[in-house]
Amino acid sequence: MRTATALSEAVRVLNHATLSHAGVSSPATVNDVLGKVSVAAARLDQLLRQLGEALKRMQASGQLSDDCGDPAGSLDKALSELTLTQEMARDLAMHLDCAFNTTATLHLTGAGES
Question: For residues 52 and 82, is the Cβ–Cβ distance under 8 A?
Fold first, then answer.
């Protein structure tokens, strides 16, 4: 999907943009990015759940196959990993939100502003 590729590219661009002082010149920038990344992380739970449901539908329809021979075993493993990843995504979102809230009061002093 193009959207998944765009997500990957967006993270790459953010990594590049935050590499230098020019990209992150104030605590407000950090706070803004944390807020947006927190929202994105919170949305991963739904995405991962829906991907798992799609795999289950494919299995139920009899259309799911596996190059290794056991689609049921691979599906069980994939669903287990997706469940764990959903929990991690919720934790990630929670910690990012905490960092977002904590950085909301940070600012540069007059001497440090450009």
Answer: yes
Distance CA 114, CA 108 (A): 9
64 vs 9: CA distance, rounded Å: 30
Report the candidate in 84, 89, 4 with the shortest Cα–Cα distance to residue 45: 89
Cα–Cα distance, 110 to 92 (Å, whole number) = 33
Residue 83 is predicted with a pLDDT of 97
pTM for the structure as a whole: 0.85
Mean pLDDT of the chain: 94
Sign of the dihedral defined by the CA atoms of residues 55, 57, 63, 69, in that order:
positive
pLDDT for 113 beyond 90:
no
DSSP alpha helix (H) spans, 2-110: 2-17, 27-60, 71-103
Burial class (CB in 10 A: 0-12, 13-18, 19+), 89: buried
Q: Tokens 């739904």: give the residue.
A: 46
